[in-house]
Structure formats: C-alpha cells, structure tokens
Design a protein that fits this description.
The complex is a heterodimer.
Chain A (H helix, E strand, L loop, with lengths): L6 H32 L1 H12 E6 L6 E2 L5 E13 L7 H15 L3 H8 L6 E7 L1 H13 L6 E10 L7 H4 L11 H5 L1 H5 L3 E6 L12 E4 L6 E4 L3 H17 L6 E7 L5 E7 L13 H8 L3 H16 L2 H4 L9 H11 L7 E4 L2 E2 L8 E2 L7 E4 H7 L2 H22 L27 H8 L8 H12 L3 E3 L4 E5 L5 E4 L4 E4 L3 H16 L14 E8 L11 E9 L6 E8 L8 H19 L8 H5 L2 E3 L8 H10 L3 E5 L7 E3 L5 E3 L3 E5 L6 E3 L8 H11 L2 E5 L8 E6 L6 E3 L3 E8 L6
Parallel strand pairs in A: 2-8, 23-26, 28-31
Antiparallel strand pairs in A: 1-6, 2-3, 3-4, 3-5, 6-7, 8-16, 9-10, 9-21, 11-14, 12-13, 15-18, 16-17, 19-20, 20-21, 22-25, 24-26, 27-30, 29-31
Helix pairs in contact in A: 3-4, 3-5, 9-19, 10-11, 13-15, 13-18, 14-18, 15-16
Chain B lengths: L1 H16 L5 H21 L6 H29 L6 H22 L4 H22 L9 E4 L2 E4 H19 L7 H4 L1 H16 L3 H18 L3 H21 L4 H11 L11 H13 L24 H33 L4 H25 L17 H19 L7
Antiparallel strand pairs in B: 1-2
Helix pairs in contact in B: 3-4, 3-13, 4-15, 5-6, 5-8, 6-8, 6-9, 6-14, 8-9, 9-14, 12-13, 13-14, 14-15
Classes of the chains: A alpha+beta, B mainly alpha.
Chain lengths: 739, 411
C-alpha cells in the first residue's frame, strides 16, 4: 500500500473545499447583503432609537411688526440651565457645581445634589434664565474651569413691548413658545421655524458615551409677519375705547375695528377689557381677580379658566351681536338696489306700525312719531316703521339673498383664530314675516363685528365685498418679503351707483341726522348709529344694550371704515349716538389727519375755522392791534408799556376766529383758574370764557345746532393757567332720541 | 504509484513551459524559469507555505485590532476603566501562539501518529473532568486551573481530527467496510457526543460531527452511510416537529430565531437583536474603525462570539466581505496544501484542521447574522480567549508543517 494520496481522496477533498468556500462563504455574503444593505436602514433606525437621546433646541420665533415695521411681538434669547450628571465624576465637582448653582439660581442645594446623582446626561434645572444670570453662570464656569457637567442651552422668550396693546390681535404664546391665541396661533407654523436638535449617544446603561459623539442640527428661525395694523391708528382706537368704557361704565368690554375699505386691510382692531400677553395667565381685571380668589377653592379653578377665556376672547370676531340700526345701511342698500325705494319715497311714522294684519304693533324709538318724511330723512331719523315698511317691500327671499351676499351668512375668513358664525333665524333663510320686520332694523339676528364692517366697507368702496385680513406680508429672518398678501375682492354685492347713493345718505345722516355726534368738521364722515337691546342676554330685571357706530370717511372717496361697539354701557347714556358716535369721532379726529386726509370745509365750517396766532412780541401796541385785527382777532392789553413783551397764546398756536390775544407790555402776568365748562351750551361757553379771559377752541360738532353741550374740556377745572390760554372744548349732541 | 505522481508533475511543468506564445519572450524567460525551478525544488520539503502564513498573520492582526475595538467599552465600564483589559491578555497569547505556530511548523507532523490514541484519551478525560467543574453561565465548558482556563472541547476537536486522520490513513483500503470504515469511528464519536451533550455544548457537537463526516467522506466510506445518517436525522427532526410539543425550549429558541424582534417568545433574543442592529447600522461602508455604538454595553460581551457584528458595524459590508474573503482564501490555501500533501495522513490532518477553521467561521457568522439559531461558537482569530487562540495558532503550525513537504508552489 502506498502512503500517497489517492485520486478519489483528492476528488472528495475538492468537494469538501467547494462546499465550504463556494457555498458556505457566499451564503454568508448574501446574508450580509440582506442585513446591511436591504434591511440596513430599518436596523439602523432601531439601533438609533436606543442609542440616541434627542434634545430639542427651540428655534427663534419670528417677529410680528406693524405696517411700519414697529415690532409688536419679539423673541429674545433666554437660557435653559442643564445638569449633566454623567459628566460629574467626582464629589468635589458635584459640590462645586451644586453650591454654585444654588447661589446663582437659588435652587435648593440638596435637591441639586440629588439630581446630580441620577444616571442621566440631561437634567433641566432651570428654564428661561435671562442673560444677566447666564453671564454669571458662564463666569462661574470659566472661573472654576468647569467644561462639562453643566450646560446652557439657548431658548427664547416672547416679549410684547407694548404690553396690552393689540393683545386680542397678537394673541400670546405658551410655555414652549407655541402660539395659543391671535396671530401667534393662526400663523404658528410660519412664526415657529424648525427646531434644531442635539443628538447625544448613550450606552446601554443610559449614561453618555465617554467619547465625543454629538451631532448638532441648527434650528431654522421662524418667519416674521408684517401686519396691516398701524400702531398709531391702533393706539387712537384703544384710547377712545378706554375713555368710552370709563365714561359710560361699560360692563362687557368694547371693541373697534378699522379697515381699509378698498383692500380689506385691518388697520386697527382693538378690544378693551384685555390682558397683557406678557402675562396671559394673569387675570387682568383686578376686581375679577379678587372675586375669584375669594371663591371657595373647588370653584376657583373653573372660575379662573372662565375669566381667562373671557379676557382672551377677541370680541371683534368671536362675539355675535344684534347689529341694530347700523344694519339699516344694509337694508337701505337692498331697497335701493332692488329699486323698491328711492330718496324721495315718502314714509309716514305715527310712532308705531302694524306691519301686517293681525300683527302686534311695533313702536318707533320716538313715541310721538317722525311724521311724514322722505327716505333720506327716515334714515337720518333711524325711523323703525319706515324700515319695517321697506323690509316688507324687499321680502324674505331677497332679504336673505342680500344678507348672504353681503357676507353675513359666512365667516369672513379673516386670518385670526376663533371667528364665529352668524346666528340667523334659520339656516336656509326662511323666516316669519315678523322676523323680517325686526331683521330690517337689525334686530334678533346675530352677526360678528368683522362681518358688519366688511359689509359697511362694501358700501363705502362701491359695492365690493373685500377679504378682511390682518397680515400684510410674510418676511424671512432678514426682512426679505417671502409672501405678500394681496387684496382679494370677493364679489360685487350692490352696484357702484347704489353704493354712492347709500353713502351720500349716510353722509347726510352724519351732517344732520342721528349720527351727528360722529361728525368731524372737514372730514366728510358718513355713518350710522346703532343701539340694540340684548334680548335674552340682559341681567334679570334690567335692559342691557349694545351701543355701536359704524362709519367711514371721507364720504366722497372713502378710505377707512371703522366700527365702534360698546357692550352694556351702564352710565347715563346708552344710545349709539351718545356713546359710540363720540368715541368714533374722537378716534377719527386723530386717525384721519394721521392718514394724511385733507380737510375740506363747507361754508358753515369755514366761518369757524381756526386762525394761527401771529407773533406780536416786540411790536408796539398799535402795530400789534392792527396785525391781530387783520386776522379777525381781538386783543387785550395788560400793563403800561408801549411794546409787547409777551403774548398768550403763543405764536403759531391755533385759536378760533374772533378769539382774543392777551398782550403783556411788562413783566406782570396774571393767572386764572379754569372754570367748569362741561355741560354748558355754546353761548354759555362764550360768556364764561370771556369773563375769565380764556380762549376757547370748540371741537366736534356743528355748533349752530341748538342742543350741543360740552362733553369734555382739555384743561381740567381748577387748573391755574395764564390769561388767554386756549382751552379745547368738545361738544356732543345731547338729543337722546338720536337713534 | 510514486513514479506515476512524479510523471504527472513533470507533465505539468512541460505544459506550463508551453504557455507563452511569444518566442523571444519565452527564450528570455526560459533561463530564469529553470533557475527558479531549481530553487523551488530545493525548497520542497523545507520551506513552509508563504501565502498561508501571510493569510494567518493578516487575519490574526485584523482580528486583534477588532478584538481591541470591540472590547474596550466593556473593559472600560466593567473592568475599572481599563480599556486595555482584554487586549493585553489576548496579545500575550497571540505572541505565544505565533511562536508555537513556528515551532510546530518545524516538527514533522508524523509525530501525531504516535499521539493519536493518547490525545483521544486526554480528550475523553477532559470531557469527563469538565463535567465536575463549577458551571459558568449554567454550562460546564471550562476547565479552571488557577487564573488559567480553557475549553475542554478545544482539545476534543483536535483529538478527533488527529485520531481520524491516523486511523483512516492506515485503513484506507478497507474504508468501504463497516468493520473498518464505520465501527471504530462510531465508537470514538458516540461517547464524545454524549459527553459534549452533557456539558451541554451543542455547537461543538455539530462541528465534531461535521468534521468527522467530512473526513470519513474523504477517507472513502460508502456514500449510503451518509444517506442513512441524513435519513435518520431527517426523520428525527420530522418526528420532533410534528409529533412533540414538549420541547418548549427548542420551540422558544426557534421562535426567537425566526422573529428576533418579537417580544412574545420565552427566549431572550437580546443578544441576537443587538447583533443585528450592529450589522445593519454598518451599512455599506461602516461607521469607521472604533465607531461602533452597539458595543457600548448593548451587545453582551462584544469581544466574544458576537465580535463579527461589531466588525460589520465598524467596517461595513465592504470590510465584512473582505474579512470573509480572507477566511475563504485561508481555507482554500489550507485545503490546497492538504490536497498536495506528501501522504494520506498529512492530507487528512490538513483538511481536518482547515475545515475546522472554515466550519467555525461559517457557523459563527451564521449565528451572528441569525441565519441559524443562536449557539455559542467563537470566531477564529477574532474572539477573545487566550488558550483557544494559542491552540488555533499551533494547529496552523501543523498545517505549515504539512506544507513543508507539500507539492505546491509556496510563494
């Protein structure tokens, strides 16, 4: 037998070799392809889930600007202080960090030590730390050469520099900087940006791997918003609402909306009875807060929640109200458009009307009746029987058709959260005849203020329903425009001619009619007052009212519409003409010149125009007298000198024609006490003022009207002022039948 | 027979001389080649196989690097922050092992004829001793001598290869009979399997059976035996699967194997699952050497049986395939050395030792990739274990010794 290898052995060896090398190993390779390439992503995801801790870094929220780029809401850096217990490897380090943080952040030291012993790589010890404290921590870290175990992570805090200003529009953000109301909530996605993250690897024990493995994904800052709101206009509106609430003891907040009638841009939207978005969870009304803290504990939380949602509620879009007589401008538009009435149509008001056989008579606000009147007069009188008659002519079907096309039956779609729907008699527009009667005068159906002003804007702009909107532009972090929100005209609802006719009636109403308290000399205001009873919503045994005014200016080329609305005035007055119209006028008096709208006076007004006081100082007395006389101004000389040494009022100030300039010829000066003007008529004002030597500037009204009385004076009673000082007196119409 | 072989070699040389087409080149090379041939003839029976040595050293170096990488988180966290805890030990044994490999390569492998029966005796003895040793992780596999410990089955595998080579090479012409071809081997194998099953050490039993089968196959037993054994195994499996539901352990193990991510099974699939996460995380190019995340205490003992999953995670598919290729080349080269061995004993010994490495690689990676159910098999040259590595290198020395007399080009 040979020792050598046989052929068969070699052949069989080759078979073994082939099985191992050409079958075994390739099989393994295929298995690896499956696991590493085909299933790789799935397995990697599973592995990452257990290996990585994902820490969110908040992105910087975009700024909210007004239309002139004044910031109304901004985010500023604050810091989150994080303890990294897995890096605290010695007791000395633990002691150092914990006592340092105890000192700087005022956190209980034992609690810190306990936290630092937990097996974790990320424990938040304090959130929203301001930068002065952050600097202290950084100094502490540098001083003690702490490079790990304590960490600062940037976060952001929302600031509203003007506090309560425009709070209902802006809304506010929550603890995680998420928008919870207003523009902040509606544009949450735009403002928020993309949060970044820190990915940290950890081992199976949950502690961090001791080797550097960290991935930072930087956050993308959010976009900024440029609102249509004009800070100044908003301010004028808020001021007038605040004054109105105070004067008329308004119980259930007030709101005002100003809209560019041609573009639908909301120039201002004020809700008063508001809150500070810097502290949205604090009850802003101190009385309410006291009431709630006096409640038994179990009721307190619920009461607090109710109070909070009440103060957050944007009355301008979330509350429905009976528009009342303001709606008569819409009814009038329907009548003129349908040609069932014209300016010369005659209506006879006997003080009440029985709309149809068998109906209960409905009274006019003037019990004695307005008598025979044409349609323009009926509107100026806000005569209920006239509009009930008109309503019958329009009919249920047409009424609802226009109601819908004026946009009352749909949400306006304004870019704010929480817009309410209207409350009509029925969803399909059917209603009883008696409903039609009251609906014609704006009663018994609810609309939102934003719907009402959108309809009024349509009358002002020639019949077009525009899309009301708050945001004008979306900007990137560097202020470049990403998106511009263009005006949208939804539809034409009445012809331009009808719109013009209604406008001139409303102008007439402001000049001579019930809306005269809203009139501003030179600015051609058109508008309609409204007083609606809160049927079913009043406190028991009382009659509560909503007092509103809706108008626009200038009537010959309307630019801005404004609705002012006081809910439940509890003062002496509650009529729209007495409460809302003066507030409208007060705001518009500031807004219209601010918008650069020129004054155009009619002849009556020209006579009352103010004159600029000339500079008479240094002139001799006769020269001064002549100069004053040439401007129809009187002079009173005090002192024995020959030349004027000082004058009151000063040069360049305004006084009415026929006013008096006090000329001092020596250094003597005399002060007088300002008397009480409030409640006086024009003639009483004149005699009182000249008796003490004050110049008066009369504002607000057509002064030749018999019933105007001073409602406010620019210098309070009892103040000592130099003789000749100009005091501005505001007049309102005192006719309480002004509805 | 010898004359026949020499003639064949000469024929091969002739044919290789006629390979060139270009005459000028051929003339030029002819002188060179004859000189080369002379040198080669001189080196026969003296030089060891360089490619095989090269492959062993390459795989060993890669294995040590990967063992260090895979082991340092465990060493850091569990052994007093000493990242070098495992590699220090392994390096010492690697150097001893390489020395042993060279030393063994100089020994004439025929000496194992004398050791065949004694080694078998030692194997049985150790397999019995190990059963009275205190269990580690519930199994009796390690024999502890002071701080030094080793697996008894390492000796068993070697003993089977040596003794089978010895008996087959003497009885080659009678291998077709039952008395000489089957019976002696059955008498060795059966008690070995029983003892291994008592430890229990199923994976080692599988390797032993496969090695024995391979060697008997090459030895020339009748193929019908394989048919019979396979038939018996198949019917046993069918019986177990179809007629018994008592084997809940096996059932759980199999359900854990089929669905490692399912939480329902009673068996703990944590290790398999973590290994698969690691392999999958590697993707095509891997996370880079040292950048495995799964080794951070996720994979239990990543330096042991599951080291290949860390290799896959750090070196990716490309790296893993290169390592597979190196192992395949090692097996290929080892087999070639064996096939061209001087005599039957050398051939059988070489094939047995090479196949043992190949089988262990294939089974280990099959386990790590969850291709077969999880069972404890280490990866040669990679897994942590000093005595095992030293033993392995010494066995490589035996192959090198065989190569010294093998009729194979060794450069």
């Amino acid at each position: 037998m040979s020792k050598g290898v046989t052929i068969r052995m070699q052949r069989r060896s080759m078979i073994v070799l082939i099985i191992l090398v050409f079958i075994g190993f390739p099989l393994l390779a295929f298995r690896l392809i499956n696991l590493q390439i085909i299933q790789g992503e799935f397995l990697q995801k599973k592995a990452s889930e257990q290996q990585l801790t994902d820490t969110k870094i908040n992105s910087k929220r975009g700024t909210i600007f007004d239309r002139n780029m004044k910031p109304l809401a901004q985010s500023a850096s604050v810091w989150t202080v994080v303890l990294e217990p897995s890096y605290i490897d010695s007791d000395e380090k633990r002691e150092l960090i914990c006592s340092g943080m105890h000192e700087i952040l005022d956190i209980d030291k034992n609690k810190l030590i306990e936290l630092s012993k937990k097996r974790s790589c990320y424990t938040i010890i304090k959130k929203k730390v301001e930068s002065d404290i952050k600097d202290k921590i950084i100094e502490f870290k540098t001083k003690n050469k702490i490079t790990s175990g304590l960490r600062l992570i940037e976060d952001y805090k929302r600031y509203y520099p003007f506090k309560n200003f425009a709070a209902a529009v802006l809304g506010f953000t929550g603890a995680d900087s998420q928008g919870l109301a207003g523009v902040e909530a509606y544009y949450e996605k735009t403002l928020k940006g993309e949060p970044g993250r820190i990915l940290t690897a950890r081992n199976a024990l949950g502690t961090e791997m001791p080797f550097e493995y960290e991935q930072l994904v930087n956050p993308t800052p959010g976009c900024s918003l440029k609102l249509c709101i004009d800070e100044c206009i908003q301010r004028f509106m808020e001021k007038t609402l605040e004054e109105g609430i105070k004067t008329h003891k308004v119980k259930n907040r007030a709101t005002a909306i100003a809209m560019d009638v041609n573009t639908g841009e909301i120039l201002g939207m004020a809700v008063k009875g508001d809150f500070d978005p810097n502290e949205p969870f604090k009850i802003a009304n101190p009385e309410e807060e006291q009431r709630i803290s006096a409640l038994p504990e179990e009721e307190r939380a619920k009461a607090k929640n109710e109070a909070l949602s009440y103060q957050w509620r944007n009355k301008a879009i979330s509350d429905t109200y009976y528009p009342g007589s303001v709606f008569k401008m819409v009814t009038a538009s329907m009548g003129l458009e349908l040609d069932v009435v014209n300016e010369r149509s005659n209506f006879n008001c006997t003080g009440s009307i029985k709309p149809y056989e068998g109906a209960r008579p409905i009274g006019c606000h003037k019990r004695s009746g307005h008598g025979s009147q044409n349609f323009v007069e009926a509107l100026c009188h806000s005569c209920n029987p006239a509009f009930i008659t008109l309503g019958q002519r329009i009919g249920v079907e047409n009424f609802f058709k226009f109601y819908k096309s004026f946009g009352f039956h749909n949400k306006t779609g304004i870019d704010l959260p929480g817009e309410s729907s209207d409350l009509f008699f029925s969803a399909d527009g059917s209603m009883a005849l008696i409903d039609l009667c009251v609906a014609s005068m704006g009663q018994n159906f609810g609309v939102t203020p934003i719907q009402m002003i959108t309809a009024a804007a349509a009358i002002a702009n020639g019949g077009n329903i525009v899309q009301p909107h708050i945001v004008k532009e979306i900007l990137d972090e560097n202020g470049n425009i990403i998106k511009r929100i263009d005006p949208i005209i939804k539809r034409q609802v009445i012809s331009e001619k009808t719109a013009k006719r209604v406008t001139s009636m409303l102008y007439e109403n402001a000049v001579h009619g019930a809306a005269k308290n809203a009139y501003i000399p030179g600015y051609r205001v058109a508008g309609k007052t409204g007083t609606s009873e809160k049927i079913g919503l009043s406190a028991p045994g009382q009659k509560d009212y909503i007092s509103s005014f809706c108008g626009f200016a200038p009537a010959d080329d309307p630019k801005i519409a404004m609705l002012v609305f006081f809910d439940t005035p509890k003062g002496e007055q509650y009529y729209g003409s007495a409460v809302a119209a003066p507030a409208f006028a007060a705001a518009m008096q500031d807004i219209l010149p601010y918008m650069g709208i020129e004054k155009v006076y009619n002849e009556e007004e020209l006579e009352k125009i103010d004159t600029v006081v000339p500079d008479l100082v240094g002139k001799n007395i006769s020269e001064a007298k002549n100069a004053a006389a040439s401007l129809s101004l009187n002079t009173t000389i005090i002192g024995n000198g020959n030349a004027v040494t000082s004058q009151t009022p000063d040069a360049s100030s305004h006084i009415p024609k026929g006013g008096t300039i006090i000329l001092h010829t020596d250094s003597s000066s005399s002060n007088i006490k300002v008397p009480k003007f409030i409640g006086l008529s024009v003639s009483e004002v004149n005699s009182t003022a000249s008796a003490v030597g004050l110049n008066t500037k009369l504002s607000g009204l057509k002064l030749e009207e018999p019933d105007v009385k001073v409602s406010s004076q620019s210098i309070p009673e009892g103040t000592e002022v130099p003789v000749g000082t100009v005091i501005t007196l505001n007049f309102v119409h005192n006719d309480s039948s002004g509805e | 027979m010898k004359a026949k072989r020499v003639k064949k070699v000469l024929n091969e040389n002739n044919s290789s001389n006629h390979l060139g087409d270009n005459k000028a080149l051929m003339v030029k090379q002819k002188g060179k080649q004859s000189l080369f041939k002379k040198l080669q003839l001189l080196s026969i029976r003296s030089d060891m196989d360089v490619p095989f040595l090269f492959l062993v050293i390459t795989i060993l170096v890669i294995g040590l690097i990967m063992m260090f990488s895979a082991s340092y988180p465990n060493a850091f966290y569990l052994h007093n922050h000493d990242s070098f805890y495992f590699i220090k030990n392994q390096l010492v044994f690697a150097f001893l092992g390489v020395a042993a490999m060279f030393a063994v390569s100089y020994i004439d492998y025929h000496i194992f004829h004398k050791f065949a029966v004694p080694i078998l005796g030692v194997s049985f003895l150790l397999l019995m001793v190990v059963l009275v040793m205190p269990p580690i992780n519930g199994v009796h596999r390690w024999i502890q001598l002071g701080s030094f410990s080793f697996q008894a089955s390492e000796i068993t595998k070697f003993a089977i290869v040596v003794s089978f080579s010895h008996f087959i090479s003497f009885n080659l012409h009678r291998m077709h009979t039952f008395k000489y071809g089957i019976l002696p081997y059955l008498l060795i194998l059966a008690p070995t399997i029983v003892l291994l099953a008592l430890e229990p050490h199923i994976s080692c039993s599988v390797i032993v059976v496969l090695l024995a089968a391979g060697m008997l196959f090459i030895g020339g037993i009748k193929l019908r035996w394989f048919g019979m054994v396979l038939g018996a195994i198949a019917s046993a499996l069918i019986y177990l699967v179809v007629f018994t539901d008592k084997l809940t352990y096996a059932n759980n193990r199999i359900s854990g194997w089929l669905d490692p991510f399912g939480a329902s099974s009673g068996v703990d699939t944590w290790q398999t699952r973590q290994g698969l996460y690691a392999i999958g995380s590697g993707g095509i190019l891997g996370l880079g050497l040292g950048h495995s995340r799964q080794k951070y205490l996720y994979i239990p003992e990543p330096q042991n049986d599951f080291i290949f999953s860390v290799v896959c995670e750090e070196l990716g598919f490309v790296g893993a395939v290169i390592i597979l290729l190196l192992f395949a080349l090692l097996v290929w080269r080892g087999m070639l050395i064996a096939i061209h061995a001087k005599d039957k004993f050398g051939m059988l010994l070489g094939i047995g030792l090479t196949a043992q490495v190949g089988l262990q690689v294939i089974l280990n990676i099959s386990v790590v990739t969850n291709t077969i159910p999880n069972t404890g098999i280490s990866l040669p040259f990679f897994s942590y274990g000093g005595t095992s590595l030293m033993m392995l290198l010494a066995q490589m020395g035996v192959i090198l010794s065989i190569s010294r007399s093998s009729r194979l080009e060794k450069t």
